[in-house]
Amino acid sequence: MQVQCKIRRYNPTQDKKPYFSVYEVRMEPTDRVLDLLNEIKWKLDGTLTYRRSCAHGVCGSDAMRINGRNRLACKVLVRDIGQKMTIEPMMGFAVLRDLVVDMEPFFEKYKAVKPYLVNDDPAPVTERLQTPEERAAYDDTTKCILCAACTTACPPFWSNPDFVGPAALVNAHRFIFDSRDKAGAERADVISGREGVWRCRTVFNCTDACPRGIQVTNVMEEVKRKLLYDRA
Amino acid sequence: MYHRFDAIVVGAGGAGLMAAMQLARTPGIRTAVISKLYPTRSHTGAAQGGIGAALGNLEEDYPEWHTFDTVKGGDYLVDQDAADIMCHEAVESVYELEHYGLPFSRTPEGKIDQRRFGGHTRNFGEAPVRRSCFAADRTGHMILQTLYQQCIKREVEFYSEFQLLDLIISEGVCCGLVVLNIKDGEIHIFHAKAILFATGGFGRAWKITSNALSNTGDGVAIAFRRGIPLEDMELYQFHPTGVYKLGILLTEGARGEGGILRNNDGERFTERYAPTLLDLAPRDMVSRFIYQEVKEGRGINGSDFVHLDLTHLGADVVENKLPDLADFVRVYLGVDPVRELIPIQPTAHYAMGGIPTDVDGRVLMDESNTVLPGFYAAGECACVSVHGANRLGTNSLVDIVVFGRRAGKHMAAYVQEAPFTELPRTPDDEARQQVSALLSRERGESAPEIRETLQEEMMDKVSVVRSEQTLQSARKTVHELQARFAQVAIQDRQTWYNSELLETLEVGYLLDLSESIIAGALARQESRGGHYREDYPERDDTNFLRHSFVYNTPDGLRIAHKPVNISKFEPKERKY
Hints:
heterodimer, A: alpha+beta, Fumarate Reductase Iron-sulfur Protein, Chain B, domain 2, 5-stranded mixed sheet, two-stranded antiparallel ribbon, 7 strands, B: alpha+beta, Flavocytochrome C3, Chain A, domain 1, Methane Monooxygenase Hydroxylase, Chain G, domain 1, 4-stranded antiparallel sheet, 16 helices, 20% strand, globular
């Protein structure tokens, strides 16, 4: 099928402001949008710049705005978008070039929630035990691939770039609900603070954007309830 | 810009991060991790099915059995002393990962859950055994995330989106790296006492592959260009169940849970080839079974694929034990695996060969085991060799964890004793010339065209089945492509985030590695594991029970040999 693809371009070292390039390409309906970007880069315009790696939705490199919605370019097919397509970088982080945004602030937010298991008790010789039910309590949030699709779809984050954002909170949830973790209080200090989970206004954009199907908004509600009940 | 660290790890997948963790746990050592991607983008994250370790959580199992399976699975080209270390240390390494927080799936008693996987057996080949420790079907993802999390906790210093350009060896010691900051195009020199390459594989040399676009063998090719020989490059694994046409991996765990391969007649054809292990025979064999079925006209509708059947497993198993697989199949094929058959074909998956190392990750400069001081390699880029001629499923994760850990520990001890070796006066000259030539050439050959021809040629002539004729023809093509590559030109002249420049460098790496693969495949005139020669269909222990070393010399490639360590199990015919 013939596709007309408009891509937002910007090189801050060169361009005064962003502009759009328009490309006409023939694709199979079952091709990924990433295949379309590769087709443009490899055959038409080598200067088009975007991140990509695994090409099947597990590495989280190629989150971008496709017809206004955050998607992984490798996890959405051309036929699902249609013959007219507009591709833009994720919103809320500085554009480095074309579809590539500065991920450093994103990873700083992630690091702020202490996204690692804390348990200073002497480890047993074998595994720490955890029942399937305890394991299930945080299963959904172990799926996160840190693509930033949720955070950059979040209106409270757009209006306040200091908000830690849904991705960091998903990863906080992953440890808060892990029965092996002992850092509950320290982590609660971060996420109940000014720029923490209470900035969430349950818009559900994050849930819609997540390419891993994580129930992001629901996860943040679980975090809020946990903070309240622990205080009470 | 100049940087100085005690230890540097190149590559932030499982092997690199496991090594970084060992270094970070040793006080006083300054460590940096350099990666062309953000760490969590590494391809370890795509591994699905599990990590093999004889924990015996569900049934009797011993590391000794795991060693035997690894040796037999590798068609006896495995160095048995190394495999024995790997299979024993797999157990404590898996517990270490669990202590780091890895969310393994659990048994009802709360232990790490384990499932069956191809080629893993009880009591030296009697029957399949539950050995693969898993976290649903995203075990690699969880290993990568967990190690990155722990590296954050330990405040490991990362240089993300920095592309390796060159390795600095001075006075016979490895002492630094030349690296490009992708963002602004600046060239950096990293000076170090010890350097680990954990740079991954090179599946992108083939058209149909499970590998990421980034898996272009940069580290292996750079070491090769700097005079390090490569071991067993002809031994490359094709995974039997790639998504038809796309190559995306569908985990062997699907067959571990009871999935069945069927031909056009609906027949479970593995019954004819491997009556004991059936669909769970090792990957090299199952890929050849599929090749044979297709060749004899039993591919689906006469085409070049067969079916993976999960329809009898029920929605519960598919959705809960194989959720990612179900998602891939629905998204990319529009097929519901609970009710429909999945079209699959073999996909280029894993390099058994690579940079030769000893069991502590130290890189070997020749077939007499001479160590190159300061240089280490671990993971898929390395060849210890624990996979021999065919890697068993789950053993890639075992390899990265065990040997990443061992290399990290050895480096930690080494850098406390070793001095810094002085760098040559202008170690970045060659790399700078290479980059500026690409940025300045006005017109010339197209790198994407060269890559596409290479990938098609490797798929047609250097994949599941090979022969003198196909290999000679592929060799000629690769030489032509290398000549064209010398005149390659790019459109993007910016130094700022120039991804076309990187992709072009990667094509050069793939070409050099393909040449070494073909040279090894021509020299190995037998069939063993993943290397099947139509013109030499039998295994030949008399002449070829040995590792091959390919050297990059000014006069072209040279092949040498090294004996296999056979300390535990005598080679036997490989039947399942």
